[in-house]
């Protein structure tokens, strides 16, 4: 009887010890998850598929309706081309991840004066936090190799002053700073292994890359296989541009085979970054899309091609695959665009990149869904949304609370 009681007590004690160890491991896991989540929050693009929400139009839905469209389509990552307050207010409490933009027109002033950068953040970012998830700020759009030289010269200084402003306002560890480039930054991009940046662009690009490298910011670049195909339809296989079955291209230097143009463009960027001394920097596609209509001389601008490109792009991104050169780094991209924008200048194609029509219905089937009704409104926060909002709690406060709780539990 005594032996049986002893064995039983020992078993109970062992069970309690195992439970205690399990509880401690659970607390440690929670602790490290909180540490990890704080660092992840600096990343402006938290998924693989996002959308550019342009508003150069007079017939598109209100920002509130746009929220319903995005949630119904399950598109979480959104990039806008300004910091419109109506949009920022509409996105409050939705859990959608937003990247705003400093307009090209103020870059010179922002480069000359940190105070202007501070004021811009105070007016266009800080008042909307934390309810609106502003995860990133793009400084200008397609500046290098495109705009007049004075704006190009101002870009590095504007980026640096925006960093200084975020530091001053204690937001530097919460918001990513970036700048999207066009294909005009490249001296050559084909084949991918021969790609380099233009020498006159590198003068301004290098200090930007150095700053971004220190802060682990990706290289954002806009790629449009549609524009490449449109420029030379006689020599480019449209199937190669549309992710359809084709013979592809073979890069002799690397021995890599490419079955679609976007992968080749991304790897050309990795090659140029390597040549510039920044081989560890990730490449993110900040714009890509296909026009569903255009002028008579715009080859390939059809609804069927737009549907094919965007459907195959979405499918490719959700596979979370890398490129031939960087197979372990999944491709991430913002598609252009959410709506057709009827007030945009330029060729007809510029006004026909939308995934959705002006009334909020789907332009063509690529596997996303629209709102069930025109009166659809943002739904309540999901568990993921609540988790996403935890970034607003100061890191040190969370850390100290976790440490105190952990020490009590382990004592």
TrEMBL record:
<dbReference type="InterPro" id="IPR017853">
    <property type="entry name" value="GH"/>
</dbReference>
<dbReference type="Pfam" id="PF00332">
    <property type="entry name" value="Glyco_hydro_17"/>
</dbReference>
<keyword id="KW-0732">Signal</keyword>
<dbReference type="GO" id="GO:0042973">
    <property type="term" value="F:glucan endo-1,3-beta-D-glucosidase activity"/>
</dbReference>
<dbReference type="GO" id="GO:0005975">
    <property type="term" value="P:carbohydrate metabolic process"/>
</dbReference>
<dbReference type="InterPro" id="IPR000490">
    <property type="entry name" value="Glyco_hydro_17"/>
</dbReference>
<keyword id="KW-0378">Hydrolase</keyword>
<dbReference type="InterPro" id="IPR044965">
    <property type="entry name" value="Glyco_hydro_17_plant"/>
</dbReference>
<protein>
    <recommendedName>
        <fullName>glucan endo-1,3-beta-D-glucosidase</fullName>
        <ecNumber>3.2.1.39</ecNumber>
    </recommendedName>
</protein>
<comment type="similarity">
    <text>Belongs to the glycosyl hydrolase 17 family.</text>
</comment>
<keyword id="KW-0326">Glycosidase</keyword>
């Amino acid at each position: 009887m005594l032996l049986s009681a002893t064995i039983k007590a020992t078993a109970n004690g062992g069970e309690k010890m195992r439970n205690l160890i399990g509880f401690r491991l659970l607390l440690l896991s929670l602790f490290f998850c909180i540490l990890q989540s704080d660092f992840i929050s600096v990343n402006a693009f938290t998924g693989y598929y996002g959308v550019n929400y342009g508003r150069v139009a007079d017939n598109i839905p209100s920002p509130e309706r746009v929220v319903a469209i995005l949630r119904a389509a399950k598109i979480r990552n959104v990039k806008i081309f300004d910091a419109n307050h109506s949009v920022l207010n509409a996105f409050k409490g939705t859990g959608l991840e937003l990247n705003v933009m400093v307009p090209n027109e103020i870059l010179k002033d922002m480069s000359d004066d940190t105070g202007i950068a501070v004021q811009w953040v105070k007016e266009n970012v800080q008042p909307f936090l934390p309810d609106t998830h502003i995860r990133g700020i793009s400084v200008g759009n397609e500046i290098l190799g495109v705009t007049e030289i004075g704006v190009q010269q101002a870009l590095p200084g504007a980026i640096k002053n925006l960093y200084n402003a975020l530091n001053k306002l204690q937001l530097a560890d919460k918001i990513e700073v970036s700048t999207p480039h066009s294909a005009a930054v490249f001296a050559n991009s084909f084949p991918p292994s021969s790609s380099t940046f233009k020498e006159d662009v590198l003068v301004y690009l290098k200090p930007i890359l150095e700053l971004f490298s220190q802060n682990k910011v990706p290289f954002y670049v806009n790629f449009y296989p549609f524009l490449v195909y449109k420029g030379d339809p006689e020599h480019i296989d449209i199937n190669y541009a549309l992710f359809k079955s084709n013979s592809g291209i073979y890069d002799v230097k690397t021995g890599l085979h490419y079955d679609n143009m976007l992968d080749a463009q991304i790897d050309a960027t990795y090659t140029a970054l390597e040549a510039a001394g920044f081989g560890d920097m990730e490449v993110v596609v900040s714009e890509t899309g296909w026009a569903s209509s255009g002028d008579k001389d715009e080859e390939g601008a059809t609804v069927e091609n737009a549907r094919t490109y965007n459907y195959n792009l979405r499918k490719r991104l959700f596979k979370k695959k890398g490129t031939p050169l960087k197979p372990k780094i999944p491709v991430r991209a913002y598609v252009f665009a959410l709506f057709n924008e009827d007030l945009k200048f330029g060729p007809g194609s510029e006004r026909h990149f939308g995934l959705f029509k002006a009334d909020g219905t789907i332009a063509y089937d690529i596997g996303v869904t629209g709102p069930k009704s025109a009166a659809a409104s943002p739904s309540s926060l999901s568990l993921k949304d609540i988790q996403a909002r935890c970034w607003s709690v100061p890191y040190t406060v969370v850390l100290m609370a976790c440490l105190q709780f952990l020490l009590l539990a382990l004592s």
